[in-house]
Amino acid sequence: MPTIHFDTAMAITGLGRTSLWRRISTTPDSSETVVPAKGHKRTRIDLDSALTWAGLTLNDADRALITAADAGDAAAQRELGMLFLELSLPERAAHWLHLAAAQGDADAMQWLGKLCARGDGVELDEAQAIAWIKKAAEGGHIIAQRQVAELGL
């Protein structure tokens, strides 16, 4: 059974911490406790359970995308954000795009700028939109570079 981190399960399902713990406690075999090298216990969530709680049916490629994003792969995080945009779940998309952007992914930065400019999944914030688009342009994103030039920034 593929498992994901607790925080990833929250981001996939849209559930808060308490609600997710409630689901885990009422669903047998939906989680496992692991003890990493530093000795702290960590709860990992069964991917199938998380997808069921989220009401999502995904193909194998999309499921692999989730496990790669969970492992910290910026490109997978960006693509997972795009998947959530396609599914009309912009709040969940913004989470994954933020993670990818924090790792320097210019595409994710440009998309975050769009979301901030529209207030889609995040608060409407023109200053933040411009900041993300400028960062994307600095990172070599061609569309963002054109946007910056057109806005005279």
From TrEMBL:
> Pfam families this protein is in?
Sel1 (PF08238)
Domain of life the protein comes from: Bacteria
The record's section on InterPro entries has:
Sel1-like, Sel1_AlgK, TPR-like_helical_dom_sf
What Gene3D superfamilies does its record include?
A: Tetratricopeptide repeat domain
In terms of PANTHER family, this protein maps to: ERAD-ASSOCIATED E3 UBIQUITIN-PROTEIN LIGASE COMPONENT HRD3 (PTHR11102:SF160), SEL-1-LIKE PROTEIN (PTHR11102)
- What name does this protein carry? Sel1 repeat
What species is given as this protein's source?
Thiorhodovibrio winogradskyi
| Organism classification | Bacteria, Pseudomonadati, Pseudomonadota, Gammaproteobacteria, Chromatiales
